[in-house]
Amino acid sequence: MLEVQDVHLHYGAAHALRGVSLACQPGQVTCLMGRNGVGKTSLLRAIMGQHAISGGAIVWDGKPLGSSPPYDRARKGLAMVPQGREIFPLLTVGENLQTGFAGLPSSERTIPDDVFELFPILKQMLGRRGGDLSGGQQQQLAIGRAMVRRPKLLLLDEPTEGIQPSIIIQIGHAIEYLRKRGDMAILLVEQYFEFARDLADTFAVMERGEIVMAGNRADMDEDRIRANMSV
């Protein structure tokens, strides 16, 4: 469903992505791993159209996305949970979830039941401001907001960063649930190896803007991957 084909990306003179290729399929989790600063977030931003690529192609459902803007990609079924969550702190939990309605047809402007089934704390806190939530609760809110869009591709940028273990477990269960539905491809950027290993159907490891290792879960060499993730 998603193909990244020999993608290059520059920030001025800095060559952030160097010939990156990968694919994401419905009903599967693709885990992208690597140290900080190797280009993982740049790749997600390129997929969402937040930064123009300078070479290669990003193909969605068989059609190149070209230079289409982020809102157009969102309408095509792409959704992203950014690093740092980026919720609206002065809006309530309910209002934050409703921001996911943007661009949806009126018939779909409802919050899916599975948002509250996966993250019941959100239903209890609908009237509370987003900025008053803990970091883990904000992460659940950010994932719930993305789910409101009924995406066909979900991009998750380090959802376990700074999150307490009990909520990491909940987030893992949510990703497993979404994978089992079979109608969504998931690209997970992660530095917590055990979390990525347990969820991955396929994986890729980046180093200095390039993919240096990739394969199916059965091909994972834990020692090699950890060596490429250690500081």
Task: Give the secondary structure arrangement, pairings included.
Blueprint: E1 2-11, E2 14-24, E3 29-33, H1 40-48, E4 55-60, E5 63-64, H2 70-75, E6 78-81, H3 93-98, H4 113-118, H5 120-124, H6 135-148, E7 153-157, H7 165-181, E8 185-189, H8 193-199, E9 202-207, E10 210-216, H9 222-229
Parallel strand pairs: 3-8, 3-9, 6-7, 7-8
Antiparallel strand pairs: 1-2, 1-4, 4-5, 9-10
Explained architecture:
The chain has 231 residues and is an alpha/beta fold. It has one domain (2-229): Rossmann fold (3-Layer(aba) Sandwich). The chain is built from nine helices and ten strands. The protein has helices at residues 40-48, 70-75, 93-98, 113-118, 120-124, 135-148, 165-181, 193-199, 222-229, and strands spanning 2-11, 14-24, 29-33, 55-60, 63-64, 78-81, 153-157, 185-189, 202-207, 210-216. The strands form two sheets. A six-stranded mixed sheet has the order 6-7-8-3-9-10, with helices on both faces. The chain has a four-stranded antiparallel sheet with strand order 2-1-4-5, with helices on one face. The chain is globular and about 45 Å long. The relative contact order is 0.20.
